Amino acid sequence: MDPFRLIIDGKKVPTKQCFEVLNPATEKVAGLAPLATREQLEDAIRAAKVAQKSWAKETERKRQTACRRIAERIEAHAEELAALLTAEQGKPMGGLGSRWEIGAAIAWTQYTASLSMPPKVLQDNNEGRVELFRKPIGVVGSILPWNFPVMIAIWHIIPAVLSGNTVVAKPSPYTPLTTLRLVELMNEVLPRGVVNCVTGDDDLGPVMTSHPDIGKIVFTGSSGTGKKIYVNAAETMKRMTLELGGNDAGIVLPDVDPKQIAEGLFWGAFINTGQTCAALKRLYVHDDVYEDVCEELVKFARKMPMGEGTDETAMLGPVQNLRQFEIVSDLVADARKKGRVLLGGDPPARTGKKQGYFFPLTIIADLDNGDRLVDEEQFGPALPIIRFHDIDEVIEKANDNPNGLGGSVWSRNITTARQVASRMECGSVWINKHGMIQPNAPFGGVKQSGVGVEFGQEGLEEYTNIQVVFS
């Protein structure tokens, strides 16, 4: 098995050491990733710094064209990337799995390439002319998670490149292979040094977040890691976009048709086997429809096949890594003592045999705020359901969490749903759906769910500094 290589200054760079990347469905080796040294990270940052000076001088139209060509390269290699993604991440090829993620990455790249940041004239009169310009920050450090390693890499890299920055990306050590291949394809289009990719252990992250030659850090991951990045970046006053953990609440009002909303609730909670920052992670259901919603949701969930990603009938895959499997197991074990298990709840014993990190779809009713599965982000296929009677009380409970990424309201009355949505403390609220992000709508969290936004014009502008010229 030939090891993958780093991508530095447009070249594939070997390393003295490699590390194994496991397929979470089989626990077998999916590939060998290069273990970058600190010196190689420095080489990547240096290459990005040199390349940025000339890349920033290119016209916006040329950068837009380059991004469109990246989308074409991804599309030409879509099946290859999807297969590699399934091998290391575990998600199924079909459904809302690897092919879907690659398709979304293409669509996001194409949309972002259409955006523009022309100068704005703030004033032009006999007192003078005032213009606002958006200028690139410089080198962007991208630190990536393991749940959507291709799509999130696109979210980080494409707006950075379009706005005249260069990038050093560091994928999660759990899922580095597809990102390495993605950046290799980007380098078939871009000038050397514009996008670099280094892989290794978590020791590289702090070097990036404190490095004086990196002007911005964009990170998607846990709130705990985000706080460490905040501290490390303070010395150099870096710009930051941090999309951190979520514990999204869904509120089901009493006028719903339980059967009609079951599918939306299910995918809101269990897309990517629940390993999604903006997944539905706490479900508050009005007493009038509580038992019916529980019944219909369980009935729908029982139909969903879980299995190895190469099985085209599988709709859900394993938890991505053993550490996360243990976190979910611990939270579910605690919830079983307090709630009513409607589905699953009993993970297979870890006997030492390689059987994959499969955790059964789990739905536990009759929990409440104060229970760990409600208060803590599970990031896996386990959903707590909480009964409520009073709308003011449930809004207070939904907001009683340090996170504030997303939320949802489920009702036939859109006016009422919007009123409830306006009172929720989160960056995005969906009505009668959950987690449906799109490239033209800004996405980001409040409270401890992050800093800044991604996507759309607002997300693109986060990769720039403002310069105002008075004349």
Explain this structure.
A 7-stranded mixed β-sheet has the order 14-15-16-13-12-18-19, with helices on both faces. A 6-stranded mixed β-sheet has the order 9-8-7-10-11-21, sandwiched between helices. The protein has a 3-stranded antiparallel β-sheet with strand order 5-6-22, with no helix packed on it. It is of the alpha/beta class. It has 2 domains: 6-244 and 449-470, Aldehyde Dehydrogenase, Chain A, domain 1, CATH 3.40.605.10; 248-431, Aldehyde Dehydrogenase, Chain A, domain 2 (3-Layer(aba) Sandwich). Strand 8 (166-170), helix 6 and strand 9 (195-197) form a beta-alpha-beta unit. The termini are far apart. The radius of gyration is 23 Å and the shape is globular. Helix 3 (78-89) packs across helix 4, helix 3 (78-89) runs antiparallel to helix 6 and helix 4 packs parallel to helix 5 (151-162). It contains 15 helices and 22 strands. Helices cover 37% and strands 22% of the residues. 54% of the residues are buried. The protein has helices at 38-55, 60-76, 78-89, 98-113, 151-162, 177-186, 204-210, 223-234, 258-270, 290-301, 322-336, 372-375, 391-399, 414-422, 456-461, and strands at residues 6-8, 11-13, 18-22, 29-34, 120-125, 128-136, 139-143, 166-170, 195-197, 216-220, 239-243, 248-252, 280-286, 340-343, 362-365, 382-388, 403-404, 406-410, 428-431, 446-447, 450-451, 464-470. Pfam families: Aldedh (PF00171). This is Acyl-CoA reductase. Keywords: Oxidoreductase. It comes from Ruegeria marina. Belongs to the aldehyde dehydrogenase family.
Q: Name the structural class.
A: alpha/beta
The pLDDT mean sits at 97
Question: Helicity range of the residues?
Answer: 25-40%
Question: How many structural domains does the protein architecture include?
Answer: 2
CATH fold description of the largest domain = Aldehyde Dehydrogenase, Chain A, domain 1
Shape: globular
Gap from first CA to last CA: 62 Å
How many strands, which pairing sense, and closed or not: the largest β-sheet? Answer: 7 strands, mixed
**Which homologous superfamily in CATH is the superfamily of the largest domain?**
Aldehyde Dehydrogenase, Chain A, domain 1
Supply the CATH class of the largest domain. Alpha Beta
Poorly predicted ranges: none
Radius of gyration: 23 Å
* CATH architecture assignment name of the largest domain: 3-Layer(aba) Sandwich
Strand order of the largest sheet: 14-15-16-13-12-18-19
Strand content: 15-25%
E-strand count: 22
Figure out the total of helices: 15
